[in-house]
DNA sequence: CTGGGGTCCT
DNA sequence: AGGACCC
């Protein structure tokens, strides 16, 4: 999916071996790359070794993928009406289409044959009148689009005793239509699995991968036939293919099998355990018991996992909410980047916090909408309004880079209430980030680090991951009102963020305490700060004060500041303007929905283009604020961020 | 040179 | 707060 998204942004990547890189890992690879021997999730070094022609795209910023993920989610949800749609990660959806299929089949009885085939209505009302944008035609004689399990059902349905479920056949046509919809409307291909429960649907969907769909046609109502078909399908598979059989469960089972079963049997399958062969579903079902599962894996979980071995899965499709429950952002550090002193820790936390706040504005603030995807509003739109208010903030730090550390071990987290002033969009994002560091993030970091997650090396902390999350997203605003930044109150000095005055504290700190503060306008506006505002916010502010932007000299000062004047150097780039950050150009991609050709500022090759640009112009982007800065002034720019 | 995210359960 | 699972 990542590669597909990158290809929409840069069509020259189509047809080539492309890998998406996240730090030293190849997060995913195009099918062309896989054909050349590149595995997903292999190290970058290995990938380049195996496939020197591999084109790498950096995928550490997930903005583009989130954008398409949400578009697909919204499109499918809107096509399926009231049917539950559940997101799993960025690129998978579960859809419970039971109701739609049932209603469709009920209608068929009063429908006479039609030359165009059969009409499947997606409309909530008036399901019998064909209308091309509320349903689709399909050919009922094709049985099922794509692959079918059991394989011989299409040719031998009459005499092999296996009868395809009519519901499943209809669902298969529906899935095919949805896939066409996603392809034609958004430009993303997809695979699908159609079955009677989530586990089996997911499983068969993975059998035929690029752009195919696979249907398990048997109905659990036909018990004997269902059991035999499902067992034939599942038994040879690695149990890890079943949702819920993760690494811990399999390790527990393997320990038990090798420890207690091996001595008592010469079973070949058991010998296989010793040589690291996957535990198969059939082996577990035949040699272990439900009781044992419950003992080893817990009552509830053991029962559920045991049932999965027979393809039994009652888990409902849980509709994913419009807004996620948590939003987090993280960065990882290798041994070179990850040895930090206290101020280094704070610097990294500030970078992450600023990115997080930017994300919150993109994802939680109501602006214009493009196909249901929230975007930053245009300046002429009404004031931006938060759609969700996170109430907690959590800092997680993983220390150490030593090889022995288990996958997720050595992580510690602390959380605190999220101060209300963070929602004040009139305050520059960087100010709100810094306020969050002062309270409560630096205290949380101290709690974690002082406890010793780090291996202290001469006042340095060894850190491999920092994650900052906001949680408990609520629909109702926090109790305390959010006043405008440009309040007529004048409060000077430190103030707690927990009183009703505190939101002023951020603004006051800026007006009175910032090195950047310039002489104020009679209206109380600070033009130094005004220049740093995103254009849309700036427009709002000016309108609020009845000032015509043309009266103001908001042009950037000459880009030649010394370090001692780093403040102005910080203004050389449009630090808070999302559109200048390559990762946030998404809303600018325009679509020709007729022929699905993305129109975007693409060059012949994304990778060479970006690196070439950097070499030729000497321009880099500030990690913290997105400002585009000449290399020679980056030090001054960073000093600006570092300064309080 | 082993991402950057998420959900649910305990 | 941590740990399992998922992508």
TrEMBL record:
<feature type="compositionally biased region" description="Low complexity">
    <location>
        <begin position="602"/>
        <end position="617"/>
    </location>
</feature>
<dbReference type="GO" id="GO:0003887">
    <property type="term" value="F:DNA-directed DNA polymerase activity"/>
</dbReference>
<dbReference type="GO" id="GO:0070987">
    <property type="term" value="P:error-free translesion synthesis"/>
</dbReference>
<dbReference type="InterPro" id="IPR043502">
    <property type="entry name" value="DNA/RNA_pol_sf"/>
</dbReference>
<dbReference type="InterPro" id="IPR001126">
    <property type="entry name" value="UmuC"/>
</dbReference>
<dbReference type="GO" id="GO:0006281">
    <property type="term" value="P:DNA repair"/>
</dbReference>
<dbReference type="InterPro" id="IPR036775">
    <property type="entry name" value="DNA_pol_Y-fam_lit_finger_sf"/>
</dbReference>
<feature type="compositionally biased region" description="Polar residues">
    <location>
        <begin position="591"/>
        <end position="601"/>
    </location>
</feature>
<feature type="compositionally biased region" description="Polar residues">
    <location>
        <begin position="559"/>
        <end position="571"/>
    </location>
</feature>
<feature type="region of interest" description="Disordered">
    <location>
        <begin position="549"/>
        <end position="617"/>
    </location>
</feature>
<feature type="domain" description="UmuC">
    <location>
        <begin position="1"/>
        <end position="246"/>
    </location>
</feature>
<protein>
    <submittedName>
        <fullName>DNA/RNA polymerase</fullName>
    </submittedName>
</protein>
<dbReference type="Pfam" id="PF00817">
    <property type="entry name" value="IMS"/>
</dbReference>
<dbReference type="InterPro" id="IPR043128">
    <property type="entry name" value="Rev_trsase/Diguanyl_cyclase"/>
</dbReference>
<dbReference type="GO" id="GO:0003684">
    <property type="term" value="F:damaged DNA binding"/>
</dbReference>
């Amino acid at each position: 999916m990542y590669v597909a998204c990158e290809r929409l942004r840069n069509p020259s990547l189509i047809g080539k071996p492309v890998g998406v890189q996240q730090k030293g890992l190849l997060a995913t690879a195009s099918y062309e790359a896989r054909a050349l021997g590149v595995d997903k999730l292999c190290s970058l070094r290995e990938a380049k070794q195996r496939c020197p022609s591999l084109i790498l795209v950096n995928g550490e910023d997930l903005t583009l993928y989130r954008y398409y993920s949400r578009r697909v989610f919204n499109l499918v949800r809107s096509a399926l009406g009231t049917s539950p749609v559940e997101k799993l990660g960025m690129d998978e959806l579960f859809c419970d289409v039971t109701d739609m299929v049932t209603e469709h089949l009920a209608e068929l009885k009063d429908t006479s044959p039609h030359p165009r085939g059969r009409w499947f209505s997606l409309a909530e009302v008036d399901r019998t009148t064909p209308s091309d944008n509320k349903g689709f035609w399909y050919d009922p004689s094709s049985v099922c689009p794509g692959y079918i399990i059991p394989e011989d059902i299409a040719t031998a349905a009459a005499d092999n005793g296996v009868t395809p479920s009519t519901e499943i056949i209809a669902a298969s046509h529906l899935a095919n239509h949805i896939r066409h919809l996603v392809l034609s409307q958004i430009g993303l291909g997809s695979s699908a699995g159609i079955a009677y429960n989530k586990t089996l649907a997911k499983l068969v969907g993975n059998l035929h991968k690029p752009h195919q769909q696979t249907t398990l046609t048997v109905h659990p109502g036909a018990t004997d036939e269902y059991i035999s078909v499902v067992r034939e399908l599942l038994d040879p598979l690695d149990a890890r293919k079943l949702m819920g059989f993760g690494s811990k469960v399999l390790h527990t089972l393997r320990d038990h099998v090798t420890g207690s079963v091996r001595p008592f049997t010469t079973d070949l399958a058991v010998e296989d355990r010793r040589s690291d062969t996957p535990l198969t579903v059939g082996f577990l079902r035949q040699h272990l018991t439900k009781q044992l599962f419950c003992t080893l894996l817990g009552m509830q979980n053991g029962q559920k996992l045991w049932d999965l071995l027979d393809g039994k899965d009652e888990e409902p499709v849980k509709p994913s909410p419009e807004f996620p429950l948590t939003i987090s952002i993280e960065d990882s550090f290798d041994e070179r980047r990850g040895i930090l002193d206290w101020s280094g820790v704070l610097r990294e936390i500030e970078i992450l916090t600023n990115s997080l706040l930017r994300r919150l504005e993109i994802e939680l603030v109501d602006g214009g909408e493009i196909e249901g995807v929230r975007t930053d509003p245009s300046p002429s739109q009404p004031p931006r309004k938060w759609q969700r208010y996170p109430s907690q903030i959590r800092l997680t730090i993983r220390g150490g880079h030593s090889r022995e550390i288990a996958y997720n071990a050595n992580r510690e987290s602390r959380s605190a209430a999220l101060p209300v002033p963070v929602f004040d969009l009139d305050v520059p994002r960087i100010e709100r980030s810094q306020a969050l560091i002062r309270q409560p993030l630096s205290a949380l970091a101290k709690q974690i680090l002082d406890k010793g997650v780090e291996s202290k090396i001469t006042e340095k902390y060894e850190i491999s991951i920092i994650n900052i999350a906001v949680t408990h997203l609520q629909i109702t605003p926090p109790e305390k009102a959010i006043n405008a930044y440009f309040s007529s109150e004048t409060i000077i000095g430190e103030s707690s963020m927990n009183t009703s005055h505190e939101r002023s504290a951020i603004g006051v700190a800026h007006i009175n305490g910032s090195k950047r503060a310039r002489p104020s306008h009679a209206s109380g506006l600070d033009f130094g700060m005004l220049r740093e505002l995103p254009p849309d916010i700036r427009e709002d502010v000016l309108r609020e004060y009845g000032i015509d932007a043309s009266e103001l000299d908001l042009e950037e000062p000459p880009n030649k500041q010394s370090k001692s004047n780093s403040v102005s150097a910080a203004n050389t780039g449009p630090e808070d303007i999302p559109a200048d950050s390559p990762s946030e150009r998404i809303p600018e991609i325009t679509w020709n929905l007729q022929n699905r050709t993305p129109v975007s500022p693409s060059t012949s090759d994304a990778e060479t283009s970006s690196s070439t640009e950097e070499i030729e112009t000497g321009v880099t982007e500030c990690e913290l604020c997105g400002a585009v800065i000449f290399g020679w002034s980056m030090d001054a720019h960073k000093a600006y961020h570092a300064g309080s």
